[in-house]
Design goal:
The protein is 45% helix and 17% strand. The chain is of the alpha/beta class. The protein starts with 10 loop residues before the first strand and ends with a helix. The protein binds D-malate.
């Protein structure tokens, strides 16, 4: 049965202060944020959800539209009785955060977009996702994990842990997420309406998200600044935790 209702997300909480929700990307889970916890927990109430189909969260059937992911985050905020939150979205978690910002502007106190973008998929990327979805359907996660892990990071020692993390994903949910990302709208149009403080964090070695797209997003957002990190690729929170934490602390201070 396909449903558009939110699902109850599995999550962890750490620390005290202003609520800061850290939303991981595809096809990972909340553990990518662990390096940031000791650096932020004295300044913020950290909430680390697993997105639907990822980590320990339920994996319903159907396409995981970014708006649906946003509904899940919204339901979690309600459950925690949090009125306003700073959202820090990584990659697909950033796409979901932009969908949240459009749907629930009054619940947003600040926004961090980490290795993410507002642009929709170009047609080739969309076709590539469908190809990947079919391959995962036929062959499982091994080929995806094998190809994707080295593409995500410029730190050799992270490749194997990331490969293992991808192998823990749910194949059906991976397919659902690929299709959800492929059909996401271009969020550039509503960036100017996001008037809360925002930071765009980009690794200069990111092979999945172009620096141009990150820079453009920072320009189009109402009140954003850009942090470009050398020696970081698609996983700056694991590759360069201290500079990422510093950028988030600056965001916390400005909301
Ligand atoms: C992610 O890291 O969430 C995705 O790989 C982003 C994407 O494929 O667009």
């Amino acid at each position: 049965m396909m449903s558009h209702l939110p699902v109850p997300l599995s999550y962890e909480e750490e620390g005290q202060g202003i609520p800061l929700m850290l939303v991981h990307g595809f096809p990972l889970n909340r553990s990518i944020w662990y390096p940031l916890i000791p650096l932020l927990k004295d300044k913020a109430r950290l909430i680390l959800p697993d997105l639907r189909g990822h980590g320990q969260s339920p994996a319903p059937e159907g396409t995981y539209a970014m708006r649906l992911l946003a509904e899940d985050l919204h339901a979690l905020l309600d459950k925690l009785e949090i009125d306003k939150v700073i959202l820090a979205g990584h990659s697909m978690g950033g796409y979901a955060s932009l969908a949240f910002a459009q749907a629930y502007p009054n619940r947003l106190a600040g926004l961090a977009m980490i290795a993410s973008q507002a642009a929709a998929d170009a047609p080739e990327r969309r076709a590539g996702r469908e190809k990947t979805a079919e391959e995962v359907h036929r062959r499982g996660l091994r080929p995806l994990a094998q190809n994707m892990a080295p593409a995500l990071t410029c730190r050799q020692e992270l490749v194997e842990p990331i490969r293992k993390m991808i192998l823990k994903a749910n194949p059906k949910a991976v397919i659902s997420s690929l299709r959800g990302m492929a059909e996401r709208p271009d969020a550039s149009e509503w960036l100017a309406d996001i008037t809360v403080p925002a930071v765009v964090i980009a690794g200069t070695e990111d092979k999945l998200i172009s620096l141009e797209n990150a820079r453009l997003m920072a320009q189009l957002l109402g009140r954003a600044w850009l942090v470009e990190l050398p020696e970081a690729a698609h996983l700056p929170m694991m590759e360069q935790p201290q500079p990422v934490a510093n950028a988030l602390l600056q965001l916390i201070a400005s909301v």
